[in-house]
Each structure stands twice: as C-alpha cells, then as structure tokens.
C-alpha cells in the first residue's frame, strides 16, 4: 500500500493542488465583480462615498487571524496540540469577529442613507463585501471541523495536510480582502 | 471539504486493488455505495452519461414541439393539449409555451447535455484510465460533483412544472426581461428556479473541473510525461481550465441578477416602464449582464466542443491505424483556442451599441480563432489520409464531426465580422451556424465517444447496424435541417419569433419550414433508436472477449474487461512511449506500456 501511495503522490499533495485551482476560480469570481464595478463606474449617475471606517478594524482583525493560523500550523507540526487547539479557536473567533465588523459596516452604510437597494455604487459594496464574508465564514466552518478533529480520541491524524490547506485558504481570503479594500478605496 | 473522507476512500481504492491482486477476495460494496453514491470515477461517468441522455431526450423533444409550431403554424394537434394542458389550448402551442420551450431547449442542451453530459462523462471515464491513475485526485469531490449536478437537474425539472411555467426569456436570461417578475409570465418563479439550478450547476462544474485538472497534473503514472498523453486528456484539461476560470464569472453575474430580482438593487435596471408605470430602479445597465454572461458564454462553446475534438482525434487515429498528424500542433491549437476563448466575448454584442473601434479588436481576435481551428481540421484530414480506415460507427461519427465542424466553422467567419453581423445578427443564419458547429459537432463527438468507449464502460459492444443507420440519418438529417436556415437568415428572417405568417416577405419559406420540421421529427426518432441500442446493449450486447478490441495503444485498454474500483488489479503499468504508435516499424500498433526497443527511436 505504501508503494502505491508513493507512486501516486508527486511533489505536491492533490488536495493542495485542488485548493490552488479553487483559489484561482474564486479570484475569477471577484474579478467578475470588480470589473463589473469598473464598467458601471464609467457610466453616468455614479455616486461616490466613503467606505465605513469599521472596515479598517476588520482589516486589522483578519490580518491578526492570519498570524494566529500561521502559528497554529507551526504548533501542529511541533505536535503541540494544546497550543494548536487554542490558536485555531482564536482564529475561528477572529473570523466571526471579522464577519461581525463587516455586518456593522453594512448597518453604518444603511444609516447614512445608502441601503442595499439604494445607489448602484452602494449595492456593489454590499454584494462584493457580502460574498467575501461568506467565503470567510466558509473558512470558519473548515476550522470548526479541524477543531472537532483535534478533540477526537479514537482516530488521531498526524498529517499536516488538512491544516495546511485550511491555512492557505485563510491567507487567501485575507489577501483577497486587502485587494478588495484597496480596490474599493481607490475606485470610488 | 472533507479531506479525511477522501483520503479514506483513496486508501479503500488501494486496498481494493490489493485485494484483487491477491484474488478471490471481493471487497464488499453495498448497492448504495456502488450504484448511487459511488466514488468510482467509472460509475460517476455512467451516472453523468445516463442523466445526460435523459436530459437530451427532453431537450430534443422540446425542439420537436416548437418545430411543430414553426413548420405548421396553422395546424392543430389535439394530442398536444393532452400533454401540455392549457399551454397548448386547442392543440396549438401558446406563445408563452413556445418561448418556454425554446429557452429550456437551449438551457438543457447547452448546459445539462453538452457540458455535464459530455465532459462530465468522458473526463470522468477517461482521465484516470488514460493517465494511469486508480481514481480521481479526490473521489469524494467527484461524487459531490455529480450530486450537485443531480440537484441542479431536479430544480430545473421542477421549474418545468410550476404554474407560471419555466424561465422563458431565452437561454441567455438577459435582463431586464429576466429581472422583472412582472415583465412576463416566464419571468416569475421560473427564473428563480433557473438561477438556483444554474448556481448548483456551476458548483458541480467547479468541483469536477478542479478534480480533472489536479488529476491530470498530479496523478499520471510513471513515464506518462505530459507530451505522452493522448489528445483526449489534453482536451479535457483545457476544457476544465476554461470551466474553472469562466463559470465563477457567470455566477457573479447571476448573483447580481438575483439581487436585482429580490433585493431591489439596480445593477441591470434603469428607466423602465411596466404597463405604463415607471419603476424606481435607476442607474443600472443591462449591457453589464451581457458582458458577464458572455465572458462565460463564449468559453462555454469551447467547453462543449473541446472534449469532442479530443475524442475525435483519438478515435480517428485508432481507426485509421495511423499516428495523429501533428500531435504538438494539436496541443498548441487547443491552447490557442483556450486563450482566444477569453478574448472574444464581445462578438456576441456587436449590435448592443458597442464602440465600433473596440469592435474591430474583437473582430480581429475572433477571426484569429480560424487559425487554430484550421490547423486542427487539416490535422484530422491528414490523419485519415491514406490510412487503413476502419469504418466503425465511432469513426464515421468522427469523420462526420470534421465535416460539420468545417461547414459550421466557415459561417463563423461571416458572423465574426461586425459589419456582416449587423445584418445577420438574430436571424436564422446564427441558428444554423451554432447548431452545426457546436450542437451537431459536439453531439457527433459524443456519439463517437459513446460507440468507441462503450465496451470499456459496459464490457459489451453496441449494435453496429443500428449504429450505421443512426449515423447516416443523423448526418443527412442535420444538414437538411440546418442548411436551409442559412438562406432564411440571409433573407433576414429573425429568430425567436412565434409566428411568421403575418410577414409577407417570409411567406416564401413556408414550405421550407414544413420540410425542416418533418426532418426534425425523423432525426428525433433516429435518436430514440440510438437510445434503444444503448440500453439494449448494456444488457444484451455482444460480449467483449479481448481486452483491446480496437487494437489501441492507450492505457485504458490494458485494464481488465470489467475493471474494478482501482482500475488495474496489480501495479499501474509504466508508460514508455506516446499514445500514437500505429503502423510503426511494420507493426500495426505498439501499446504505450512497451519499452522503446534498442533499434527504435521514440516518435
């Protein structure tokens, strides 16, 4: 069995590979959104406004969570399971906190007279930020699965692949958010 | 994503293989895990194929129904009322039903049959078998891919039965018609179900595509360099890349459309009056949707036709006992088509008020596609040139593919020119063009694949006589149906109309429309013959007695006649040469697994 495993496993694990392609795919989706945004902005009746300030806080939160998941991966590799569990818990909480911040941002927008069904420029913020938020929450679900797995006693996993996949995805949604933030701040 | 489930199943695959190796010991499969939630790529391929066949019958039957209206606008068919109810009062299809049928015909054939049914079937079946892998990179995701497709199918099927009928704004689902429930009866819940179904469909395609790519890049057996792979695999690879990069953009377009429908946003809507009442929506642009849609929509036609091209290349080489002509040129042209596919979407939009200066670039890029296409056609013809051709149904369908791809492709050069397109846009000329080059051709590729790899799927052969009847009637019928449409289109006859009888200039086409509709019915009946042949042969077909009935070189024919999960009972064979060593050094064929001899040069 071992030889067969080796025989089929080349340099990079297939799951990691699939993840990279999936990330390319998700990127294409956001390129779709942002290019629609650019096309729309070039047309008449575009209303420019400032982004909610809380988005800067959410940026800090997601950057911090990237750091914690990085440390979690490191602890896992050193088989420091107690620290590992703490760190992925913190990461998941930060992920939820990020989503809450974005939600507060939505209510702030609404309060300044820019609801979802208001001007198109505002609708875009809701959709783009909202879809990104769903991707972060998807990451949180993945972390919950990892968490449950870490507490399982019957089967123990020593393979770092799942946590590596989760960490890469987490960094990806982080970078994606930075891109969106810069994009939305510049192309107003 | 459950990595663990995947790894477990992979281990199972390997155990399974081991067990077979030690003989006698069968590894237990319940009915559910073998036939329903199977993780074996071969079973998933069959699931895609049979679901695709069911959809194809429905989609083709819809075309028969609306051809009845187009061919016999004054006639009544009482039996129509008994199956369609109030959609065909008095035996005549209503205008609403006509639009619903046309929309569903397009959606079903483009997405459910020629995308999922074609690349879903053959990518799943052939990738692991031809690259030498036990299964896909992630069998679990592969299984999910089918079941998302199944869910999408259920939702789409359900939309046929809701009271206000399915979506009926055309398969492209352009706003504002599709965005406003009040705009027409076919824009109500039918469109919501359509969008839901398509979102599920996109998920299915992405899960599948991820798997195809990572399997091809990571799981090739020893010695299987990328340049030793059969062209089928290259074609599936580029198809998957196109899908993975373009379907998400379609999804973002759909999300915006859903928001417009239900959240009151105005991405696509501006200054609209319905029944004399002004809507509040302001600042949207319907053209935006067209950009997002066609950014997928154009690659989509290559998603449909590339797998057919790959299979045709393979079938032609095997059946003319000659190496494929210009192997690297074939890969290069697939690659070129793949790149150009993303750069030509605006040629669907020449008459939307697109800047003519911009249009010139899209014309140029569109016409450039003729170059790789012509390379491929040239190579197929030179492959069969002076070959020892075995005229099996599969090779006939492959030759038919080359024929329809040429005749449909040439009219693409007309339509790609923005100035000619202004006249021909939205006429029957367009219908003729894309049905021949993408519909009929892709179907021919699919039929070639089914006839050729049926023995690998079911361990039996399909009936040849029925296959020949199927081929000739379909080929002649397809030309009889679509060729006359070119003339109608050049005369300016617009597509999508329900009734032309009030239009004196098109009265001359009345007999022609009768004729087309009659041929449609004959061709449809012939497809039922094929389906009978397919299902009958699964159970009663002539049994396969040798592993390699077509004397082909590629790896799938080194597996047992009915391969288990894991494909090869022992070690996966090692590959030493490319897949096209036919008629070399006085030998009919040399399998890929045979080492290069001391006095022999690799291709």
UniProtKB/TrEMBL annotation, chain A:
GO biological process: aerobic electron transport chain
Stretches assigned to the Heme-copper oxidase subunit III family profile domain: 16-188
Domain of life: Bacteria
Compartments, as annotated in UniProt: Cell membrane; Membrane
Tagged with keyword Transmembrane helix: yes
InterPro entries xref list: Cyt_c/ubiquinol_Oxase_su3, Cyt_c_oxidase-like_su3, Cyt_c_oxidase_su3-like_sf, Cyt_c_oxidase_su3_a-hlx
Transmembrane spans: 20-39, 54-73, 85-105, 125-148, 169-187
GO molecular function, one term: cytochrome-c oxidase activity
Membrane topology (UniProt): Multi-pass membrane protein
Family that this chain belongs to: Belongs to the cytochrome c oxidase subunit 3 family.
Protein name in the entry: Cytochrome c oxidase subunit 3
Biological source species: Chitinophaga terrae
UniProtKB/TrEMBL annotation, chain B:
Main location: membrane
Transmembrane segments: 48-70, 97-122, 143-162, 193-213, 233-259, 301-318, 325-345, 357-375, 396-416, 428-454, 466-485, 515-536
Membrane protein topology class: Multi-pass membrane protein
All residue ranges annotated as the Cytochrome oxidase subunit I profile domain in the record: 31-594
GO cellular component: membrane
Descriptive protein name: Cytochrome c oxidase subunit 1
Gene3D superfamilies: Cytochrome c oxidase-like, subunit I domain
Composition bias, Polar residues: 1-12
Pfam families assigned to the protein according to its UniProt record, in alphabetical order: COX1
One BP annotation, GO: aerobic respiration
Localisation: Membrane
Domain of life: Bacteria
Annotated GO MF terms: cytochrome-c oxidase activity; heme binding
Homology family: Belongs to the heme-copper respiratory oxidase family.
Positions of region (Disordered): 1-23
InterPro entries, per database record: Cyt_c_oxase-like_su1_dom, Cyt_c_oxase-like_su1_sf, Cyt_C_Oxase_1, Cyt_c_Oxase_su1_BS
């Amino acid at each position: 069995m071992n030889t067969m495993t080796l025989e089929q496993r080349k340099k990079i694990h297939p799951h990691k590979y699939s993840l990279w392609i999936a990330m390319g795919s998700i990127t294409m989706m956001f390129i779709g959104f942002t290019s629609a945004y650019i096309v729309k902005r070039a047309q008449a009746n575009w209303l420019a406004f400032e982004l909610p300030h809380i988005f800067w806080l959410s940026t800090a939160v997601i950057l911090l969570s990237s750091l914690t998941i990085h440390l979690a991966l490191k602890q896992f590799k050193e088989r420091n399971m107690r620290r590992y569990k703490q760190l992925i818990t913190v990461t998941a909480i930060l992920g939820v906190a990020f989503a809450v911040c974005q939600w507060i941002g939505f209510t702030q927008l609404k309060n300044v007279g820019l609801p979802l069904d208001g001007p198109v420029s505002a609708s875009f913020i809701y959709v783009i930020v909202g879809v990104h938020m769903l991707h972060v929450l998807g990451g949180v679900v993945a972390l919950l699965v990892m968490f449950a797995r870490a507490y399982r006693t019957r089967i123990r996993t020593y393979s770092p692949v799942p946590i590596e996949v989760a960490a890469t995805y987490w960094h990806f949604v982080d970078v994606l958010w930075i891109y969106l933030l810069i994009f939305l701040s510049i192309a107003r | 994503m459950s990595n663990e489930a995947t790894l477990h199943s992979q281990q199972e695959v390997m155990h399974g293989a081991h067990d077979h190796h030690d003989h006698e010991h069968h590894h237990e499969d319940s009915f559910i895990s073998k036939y329903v939630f199977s993780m074996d790529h071969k079973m998933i391929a069959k699931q895609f194929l049979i679901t695709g066949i069911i959809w194809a019958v429905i989609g083709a039957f819809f075309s028969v129904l609306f051809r009845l209206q187009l061919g016999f606008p004054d006639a009544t068919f009482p039996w129509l009322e008994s199956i369609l109810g109030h959609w065909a009062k008095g035996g005549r299809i209503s205008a609403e039903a006509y639009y619903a049928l046309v929309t569903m015909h397009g959606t079903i054939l483009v997405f459910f049959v020629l995308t999922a049914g074609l690349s879903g079937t053959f990518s799943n079946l052939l990738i692991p078998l031809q690259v030498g892998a036990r299964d896909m990179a992630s069998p679990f995701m592969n299984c999910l891919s089918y079941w998302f497709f199944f869910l999408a199918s259920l939702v789409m099927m359900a939309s046929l039965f809701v009271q206000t009928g399915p979506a009926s704004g055309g398969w492209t689902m352009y706003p504002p018609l599709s965005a406003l429930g009040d705009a027409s009866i076919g824009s109500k819940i039918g469109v919501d179900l359509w969008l839901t179904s398509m979102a599920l469909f996109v998920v299915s395609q992405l899960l599948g595509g991820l798997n195809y790519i990572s399997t091809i890049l990571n799981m090739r057996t020893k010695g299987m360099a990328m340049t030793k792979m059969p062209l089928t695999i290259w074609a599936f690879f580029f198809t998957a890349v196109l899908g993975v990069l373009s379907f998400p953009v379609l999804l973002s377009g759909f999300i915006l459309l859903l928001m417009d429908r239900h959240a009151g946003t105005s991405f696509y809507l501006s200054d609209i009056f319905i029944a004399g009442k002004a809507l509040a929506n302001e600042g949207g642009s319907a053209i935006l949707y067209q950009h997002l849609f066609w950014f997928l929509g154009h690659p989509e036609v290559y998603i449909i036709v590339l797998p057919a091209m790959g299979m045709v290349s393979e079938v032609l080489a095997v059946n003319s006992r000659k190496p494929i002509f210009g192997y690297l040129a074939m890969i290069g042209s697939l690659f070129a088509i793949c790149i150009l596919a993303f750069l030509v979407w605006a040629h669907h939009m020449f008459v939307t008020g697109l800047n003519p200066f911009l249009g010139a670039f899209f014309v140029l890029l569109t016409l450039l596609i003729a170059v790789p296409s012509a390379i491929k056609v040239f190579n197929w013809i030179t492959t069969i040139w002076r070959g020892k051709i075995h005229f099996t149904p599969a090779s006939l369908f492959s030759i038919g593919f080359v024929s329809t791809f040429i005749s449909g492709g040439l009219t693409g050069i007309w339509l790609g020119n923005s100035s000619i397109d202004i006249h021909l846009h939205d006429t029957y000329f367009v219908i003729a063009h894309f049905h021949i080059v993408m519909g009929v051709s892709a179907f021919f590729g699919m039929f070639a694949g089914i006839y050729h790899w049926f023995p690998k799927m079911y361990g039996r052969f399909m009936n040849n006589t029925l296959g020949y009847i199927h081929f000739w009637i379909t080929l002649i019928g397809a030309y009889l149906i679509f060729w006359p449409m070119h003339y109608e289109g050049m005369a300016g006859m617009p597509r999508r109309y329900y009734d032309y009888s009030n239009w004196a200039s098109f009265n001359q086409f009345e007999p022609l429309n009768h004729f087309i509709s009659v041929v449609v019915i004959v061709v449809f009946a012939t497809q039922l013959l094929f389906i009978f042949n397919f299902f009958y042969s699964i159970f009663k077909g002539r049994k396969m007695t040798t592993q390699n009935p077509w004397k082909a070189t590629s790896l799938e024919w080194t597996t047992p006649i009915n391969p288990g999960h894991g494909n090869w009972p022992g070690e996966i064979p090692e590959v030493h040469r490319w897949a096209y060593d036919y008629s070399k050094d006085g030998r009919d064929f040399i399998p890929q697994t045979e080492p290069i001899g001391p006095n022999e040069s690799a291709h």
